[in-house]
Amino acid sequence: KLHALHQADVPSHPVGRAPTAQSPLDPTFSVPPLPPKPNISRVCGCPSWSPSASMLVSGMPIQAQAGAMPGRIGFPMVTAMPQATMAPAGGVGPGNNNNNNGVSELTIAVLVPGEAIAKVIGKSGAGLRQVRETSGCRVNVEQAGETRDAARRVELVGMPQNVGVGAGLVLTAAFSGSMQATVEITVMVPDRCTGGVIGKGGENLKRVRGLTGARIQVEREAVTNTATNEQERILKVIGEPMAIGNGLCLALGGVMMGAGGQPRVDGGSAPVVPGTAAVAAAMAPKQEVQPMGDNPENVQIHIVIPGKVTGAIVGKQGAAIKSLSEQAGCRLSVSTRTVQGMRPPDRRVMAVGTFSQVCAAEQLVHNAVTQAEAGSEDATNSFTTIFWIPKEYSGAIIGKSGATLGQIRESTQVKVHFGKEEVRMMRPCTIVGPIANVIQAQSMVWNLLSVEMQNHGPAKRPPGSEPQPELESSKLLVPARSAGSVIGKAGSGLCKIREDHGVKIDMLQQAQAPHWTEDRVVILQGAAQNRQAAMCAVLQAAYQGDENNVNLKMLVSGQGAGALIGIKGGTLKQIREQTGLSTQVEKEPIMGERLVTCTGPMRGVLTVVGLIMNILSQPNKSGNNDGA
Q1: What torsion, rounded to 10 degrees, do the Cα atoms 472, 476, 482, 485 define?
Q2: How far is CA 297 from the centre of its chain?
Q3: Mean pLDDT over the full length of the chain
Q4: Closest to 617 measured CA to CA, from 463, 494, 472
Q5: CA distance 9 to 77
Q6: 8 Å CB contact between 184 and 236
Q7: Is the whole model's pTM more than 0.85, yes or no?
Q8: Is 599 exposed, middle or buried (0-12, 13-18, 19+ CB in 10 A)?
Q9: How confident is the model at residue 214 (pLDDT cuts 50, 70, 90)?
Q10: Which parts of 89-156 fold into alpha helices (H)?
Q11: pLDDT tens digit string along 554-612?
């Protein structure tokens, strides 16, 4: 039995205190719980003994052995040993009968889909280096075979907590950008670990699932690794990438950490695997802030949702989030679960697209959350988004001494906080309030951004994101009651117009253009002839079944309106004479734009559209963007 430890044996660290490591991933040996002895602090000259203390000698863990040390009667022998981790019940660490004669390191293999292996390796191996440095384990990737799409073995060698963290990082990289929050993967572990993984009566598997949410199924028969001739067992694991890593850590014997960095043996409700806090800090920004793509007009807004409704937002195999993405016309994905605590209250739906597309996505997500929380006592009352602002435009949003942010708060009655951190050359602007107010505040931010981009050019993008030439645009109003016919089921109508006519098409939400109470604004971008064809398609969809009573409404700039009217109204008169339809240009601008209207049968109205587009596309007539 361990009675005492002489102070001279551990000169650099008092007994009962874990040394301060440079990295939270440095594993230490935890002394197993033993009956405490009275007055041990007087013997050691240090604070009272902690049965879960970690000790190091010259940077290496020490192992206390029963028996007397020569010249020091009554004190145990202390010897330096390779780094090892004490496993909890059912684990495979030292001190457990399932660890195959005390071997502390182990090798596991994660089977990564062939199409995702490049994400894991990274450019010039940068991804693998990050996994090695962050997790502290060795990483080897199997050479590609004849079938490039076949799954590849990614082997992780190290202590249980290290390979667990490494597995989480590998899977997070492999499935980054995927719409699936939950994945199913295959892991190969040494056959000798099987008993510890399962636990008595499956107790350890239940524990892993309860603490991390990851489900592990162990195959009955062992298989032989043809490269090493060692026996391996196949694990089928289902969960979120980082949750799978945490689950593997616990299943293989990693120590859970509680308050103060001390090992936990109580199975608390919110354990943290050693080192995963550092992993979260290192990986979260790159995971959660998505690449912006090539379109300089793209924005990125994160929608915060309660963690409990994530399943309803994602859907089975990502079906729900995919449908929302198609309806909004932008890219949507759901953030991985935060590592600390493993079951955080909130998650993020990350939306990347044009501003109008992202606003549409926000409304759709909000509706889905409201429906999922129906009848819940703790339903969400406010809407929280994070608008990522290019760093070079941050000053324009903040204003002198925060004056611009203050105006946004006062005008929209929302909470606004502009973060100092920078990720992918962007800074976060968090907006909280009722959804209509939040979108209104976002619109003000977007207007400021648009002005800055016009004055100073598109925002700088990270390397690899080259801006595209600015596209000309036109705006069309359609009756709100007909919006569904234009959008189509799951966005199929808008998608067809995009593909058939080679344009970008967006339909604004009502809250984005509240001054048009009975209409929805459709924005078309592309070449003039493409926009004209797309306008015809929009009108045909909006007035299907009512082709004899089509009401054309177009928005043009003041310069575009002047071109349409002509000298003393001559151009408008020509349009009326050629089509037999009365075409009007409203005198008063609305939000800086003039409304052009025409009512009549479909064929005549489409002819008017062609004449208007022809006039606006002529040089020195419409100015930039057709004035619309």
Answers
A1: -20
A2: 20
A3: 74
A4: 472
A5: 9
A6: yes
A7: no
A8: middle
A9: confident
A10: 117-121, 126-135
A11: 999 888 899 899 898 899 999 988 889 989 999 888 877 899 999 999 999 999 998 99
